[in-house]
Write a sequence for this structure.
């Protein structure tokens, strides 16, 4: 309570207490996860329905979704259960299928460092969808990163559990036509990829993904293609980085020339920007102006990139 | 059919194997400084993995039989176009999903 009063006293305009802030943060996290909710319910139901069909009580769907929490991993488990696989087979198949998650962790080492006591849970709950949200969504300003991440991860987990229990308990009774609804996750990934495109200057990761993805689609079965494509893509990224480091020395020798050229470019950039500003002021919305500037910035980046390559 | 104990042991094995794959990098680099190469990879992995997840969602599409993946590609095009235009995540995702559900449930591309 004292802290609450202090906060309010310190910040004249800030009228919300800590509880309200948490509530706001939770609502923001909920809004962020709505696409996952709509994707996990039908997918979870499909899993629960399958497990029910294999003759297992719905409580197992609940236990698996609570403690395993891996979409494709649980589908695989149902297939192995029906095939009467042994424990070693379960272990090896699960390790291979989910090994891609090790790559997710690699890119979260910094983000998760110093995140506090929620870290083990965040690592446990690192599904494809949660990874996609955590790497792309910005934490609201002035909010706790660990709380925001925890809300997102836990909400996604909850949706998955709810879906699988629903499917196992009611799957045979309900006759909803949810055909195509899990496309919501494809759409989510498309949108998050575009957001990555906006927030990151790097363009090569997308080229690497298209190359590695297409090659893996052709060469590997659909069960193995994701892991194969992630390994392939990572190798491409490392190869590109190594070759860039090699050429870096040569570039340093020509640094003076680059600076001269950059100054020229900056001058033209400035005139381009003013021109665009004038044009866009005539346009209607603020968002249109922002979009315009954004696209100009990208073209400037590519011009800069080309000049650097020429040198 | 497994009995209760066998089933619980099996679930425990699957749960541990899954957690191991997720915890591996954190265990490995928890006490030592990651190599500099990793910093570059760390930055570039998310955009690459997200696009790979999009491609992964298309893994079961039958490209060589009708409708040749048209519902998927068409909807992805609409979602991407809408998102570049309006940049409203909810709008892009829900328009795309409803569109896709209509396309497959009413078999709109059956003429192909």
């Amino acid at each position: 309570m004292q802290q609450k009063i202090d906060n309010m006293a310190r910040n004249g305009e800030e009228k919300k207490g800590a509880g309200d802030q948490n509530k706001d943060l939770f609502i923001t996290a909920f809004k962020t996860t709505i696409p996952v909710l709509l994707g996990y319910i039908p997918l979870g139901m499909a899993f629960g329905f399958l497990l029910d069909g294999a003759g297992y009580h719905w409580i197992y769907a609940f236990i698996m979704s609570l403690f395993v929490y891996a979409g494709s991993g649980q589908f695989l488990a149902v297939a192995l259960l029906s095939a009467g696989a042994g424990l070693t087979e379960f272990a090896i198949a699960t390790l291979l299928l989910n090994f891609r998650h090790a790559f997710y962790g690699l890119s979260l080492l910094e983000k998760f460092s110093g995140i506090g006591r929620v870290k083990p849970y965040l690592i446990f709950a690192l599904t494809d969808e949660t990874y996609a949200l955590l790497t792309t969504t910005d934490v609201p300003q002035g909010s706790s990163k660990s709380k925001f991440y925890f809300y997102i991860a836990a909400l996604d987990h909850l949706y998955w559990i709810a879906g699988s229990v629903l499917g196992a308990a009611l799957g045979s009774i309900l006759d909803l036509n949810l055909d195509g609804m899990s496309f919501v996750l494809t759409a989510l990934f498309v949108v998050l990829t575009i957001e990555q495109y906006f927030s990151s200057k790097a363009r090569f990761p997308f080229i690497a993904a298209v190359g590695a993805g297409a090659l893996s689609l052709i060469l590997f079965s659909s069960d193995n293609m994701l892991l194969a494509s992630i390994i392939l893509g990572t190798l491409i990224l490392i190869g590109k980085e190594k070759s860039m480091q090699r050429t870096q020395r040569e570039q340093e020798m020509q640094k003076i020339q680059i600076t001269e050229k950059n100054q020229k470019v900056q001058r033209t950039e400035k005139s381009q920007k003013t021109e665009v500003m004038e044009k866009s002021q005539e346009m209607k919305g603020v968002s249109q102006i922002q979009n315009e500037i954004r696209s100009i910035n990208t073209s400037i980046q590519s011009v800069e990139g080309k000049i650097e390559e020429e040198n | 059919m497994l009995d209760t104990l066998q089933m619980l042991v099996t679930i425990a094995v699957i749960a541990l194997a899954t957690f191991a794959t997720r915890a591996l990098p954190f265990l490995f680099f928890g006490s030592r400084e990651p190599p500099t190469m990793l910093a570059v990879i760390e930055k570039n992995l998310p955009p690459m993995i997200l696009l790979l997840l999009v491609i992964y969602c298309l893994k079961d599409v039958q490209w060589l039989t009708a409708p040749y993946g048209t519902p998927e590609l068409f909807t992805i095009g609409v979602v991407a176009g809408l998102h570049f235009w309006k940049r409203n995540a909810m709008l892009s995702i829900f328009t795309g999903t409803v569109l896709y559900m209509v396309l497959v449930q009413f078999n709109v591309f059956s003429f192909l």
